[in-house]
Amino acid sequence: MEMDKKNILSIIRDKSKSTLATSLGIEICDLGKNYVSGKMPVNHKTKQPFGLLHGGASVAFAETLGSIGAGMQVNLDDHSVVGIEINASHVRPVKDGWVNGKAQPLRIGRSIQVWDIKITNEKGDLVCSSRLTLSVIAKNKKKSNDK
């Protein structure tokens, strides 16, 4: 039986405690089989010294969304997903408020996933366009005779 969206979002929030995502104020708002969306405040924690949204905060937001989406595509008991490359084009500054992000898969493979992440301002204007490539790796499991 599949867990409902509310329970999955609750699990994600619990696992995000004491992480970079929580430190930046990232909130996961919605998800489905082929997307993850969230929001991040533009405040003293996410701005650069000149008062604008820091590009690194946008990249952290993008990688958070894409990684959660990628993790939803694998059995996390057997596999992990790890980012191996991310790029970002910052196309519009943001001074305050919130930015919204949505990650969608471009490719879901057995060993590689590629996700497209768009970050917009509160008006819906594109702020950052990012692409995240992740590796799907098998978890090392101890065999019963390993010590």
What does this structure look like?
The chain is an alpha+beta fold. It has a single domain, classed as Thiol Ester Dehydrase, Chain A. Helices cover 23% and strands 41% of the residues. It is built from three helices and six strands; from the N terminus they run H-H-E-E-H-E-E-E-E. It has helices spanning 5-16, 20-24, 55-71; strands at residues 27-32, 35-42, 79-90, 97-108, 112-120, 126-138. It has a six-stranded antiparallel sheet with strand order 1-2-4-5-6-3. A hairpin with a 5-residue loop joins strand 5 (112-120) and strand 6 (126-138). It starts with a helix and ends in a 9-residue tail after the last strand. The mean pLDDT is 93.
What's the layout of helices and strands?
Blueprint: H1 5-16, H2 20-24, E1 27-32, E2 35-42, H3 55-71, E3 79-90, E4 97-108, E5 112-120, E6 126-138
Antiparallel strand pairs: 1-2, 2-4, 3-6, 4-5, 5-6
